[in-house]
């Protein structure tokens, strides 16, 4: 099937499956402000919800089923913010209908899901990307540039924290069959950040995972990744006070990212760079990045790649690697020992 990027459209025409809060409050408004994108359709299994959300967001089309939107010949790409267990099914259906796909993380529940989507992508010729929006935010690119530059010396340690409190048993994040739990929902960011900054894959991993006794959903996990003598450690939780932070430590300095994952779209972001060579008084500098919306950047870069027949900005192969690490962390949590990658 011919990929829709070959059409001579001036903008990529998007449809959205579902009316999840992240879509209606964050991603859709951000994508409506980009250069290469229009959001032309919205679908929900509840037609009334779809119509109400479409009116509120000024989206021309509303569908009462996901199937109807995926079949729309005037839609080029699909954004999927559905519950985790539906990601692979609807990414596959959309790709087989000739649509490019931007799917929320995690791309699947296990690495085998991501591997299957590689085959789908290669068979259909469309772009499929996991929505790790942080990968293209200027503050992360700035931190990566500092790590590469040698300014803080060899990067030897990354420490991360990401948490919020949600104990609602009906919430999708607390339903195991739907891919709920902290490690898949937010722990994936800690893994991704470590792999991004070290620009390598861990050789072994270890995890302590706490589960709800009735639902078996993990609500707190502490992880350790060994990158051949360089370490990444972190804690994620869905039942702790809201917090997030990343510290990147090198031999002669460090970088701290103030709001690494939920970067605010309405004010500048900051990272703190501390130069502390041996024998010197540490000298901290604030690096400020202009106000931007990470979902706008993500949508525009993906749309432009699709329109110009270029690879996805964040390759699906990297998503496979991230899921393999998460799989290993779950195995470690179950066995209580290190798991080799």
Q: Would you mind describing this structure in some detail?
A:
The protein has 341 residues and is of the alpha/beta class. The protein is built from 9 helices and 15 strands. It has a 9-stranded mixed sheet. The chain has a 6-stranded parallel sheet with strand order 3-2-1-4-5-6, with helices on both faces. Helix 1 crosses helix 8 (294-307), helix 4 (87-96) packs parallel to helix 5 and helix 7 (182-198) packs across helix 9. It is globular and about 65 Å long. The chain starts with 11 loop residues before the first strand and ends with a strand. Mean pLDDT is 95; it is low at 1-7.
What is the approximate shape?
Answer: globular
Number of helices: 9
Largest sheet: 9 strands, mixed
Strands of the widest sheet, in order across it, are 14-13-12-11-7-10-9-8-15
How much strand content do the residues show?
A: 25-35%
DSSP summary, beta strand count: 15
User: Approximately how much helix is present in the residues?
Assistant: 25-40%
Rg for CA atoms: 20 Å
Q: How far is it from the N-terminal to the C-terminal residue, by CA?
A: 36 Å
- Uncertain spans: 1-7
Class by SSE composition:
alpha/beta
Task: Return the average pLDDT rounded to an integer.
Answer: 95
Order of helices and strands: EHEHEHEHEHEHEHEEEEEEEHHE
Structure keywords:
six-stranded parallel β-sheet; 9 helices; alpha/beta
Chain-wise SSE layout:
Elements: E1 12-17, H1 21-31, E2 37-43, H2 47-57, E3 61-63, H3 66-71, E4 77-80, H4 87-96, E5 100-103, H5 111-124, E6 128-130, H6 138-149, E7 155-165, H7 182-198, E8 204-211, E9 218-227, E10 230-237, E11 239-250, E12 253-257, E13 269-275, E14 283-289, H8 294-307, H9 316-335, E15 339-340
């Amino acid at each position: 099937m011919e990929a829709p990027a070959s059409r001579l459209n001036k903008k990529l025409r998007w449809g959205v499956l579902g009316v999840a809060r992240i879509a209606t409050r964050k991603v859709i408004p951000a994508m409506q402000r980009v250069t290469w994108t229009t959001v032309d359709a919205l679908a929900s299994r509840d037609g009334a919800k779809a119509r109400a959300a479409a009116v509120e967001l000024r989206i021309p089309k509303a569908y009462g089923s996901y199937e109807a939107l995926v079949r729309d010949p005037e839609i080029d790409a699909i954004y999927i913010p559905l519950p985790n267990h539906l990601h692979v099914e609807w990414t596959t259906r959309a790709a087989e209908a000739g649509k490019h796909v931007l799917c929320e993380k995690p791309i699947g529940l296990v690495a085998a899901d991501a591997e299957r989507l590689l085959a789908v992508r290669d068979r259909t010729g469309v772009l499929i990307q996991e929505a790790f929006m942080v990968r293209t935010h200027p503050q992360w690119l700035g931190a990566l540039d500092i790590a590469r530059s040698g300014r803080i010396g060899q990067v030897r340690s990354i420490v991360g924290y990401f948490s919020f409190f949600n104990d609602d048993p009906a919430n999708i994040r607390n339903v195991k069959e739907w891919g709920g739990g902290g490690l898949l929902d937010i722990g994936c960011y800690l893994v991704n950040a470590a792999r991004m900054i070290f620009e390598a894959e861990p050789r072994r991993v270890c995890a302590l995972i706490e589960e709800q006794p009735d639902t078996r959903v993990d609500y707190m996990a502490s992880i350790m990744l060994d990158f051949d003598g360089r370490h990444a450690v972190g804690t994620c939780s869905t039942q702790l006070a809201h917090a997030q932070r990343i510290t990147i430590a090198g031999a002669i300095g460090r970088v701290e990212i103030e709001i690494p994952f939920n970067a605010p779209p309405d004010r500048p972001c900051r990272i703190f760079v501390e130069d502390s060579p041996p024998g010197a008084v540490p000298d901290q500098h604030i690096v400020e990045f202009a106000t931007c919306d990470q979902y706008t950047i993500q949508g525009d870069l993906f749309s432009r790649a699709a329109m110009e027949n270029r690879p996805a900005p964040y390759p699906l192969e990297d998503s496979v690697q991230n899921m393999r690490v998460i799989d290993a962390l779950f195995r470690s949590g179950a066995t209580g020992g290190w798991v080799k990658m």
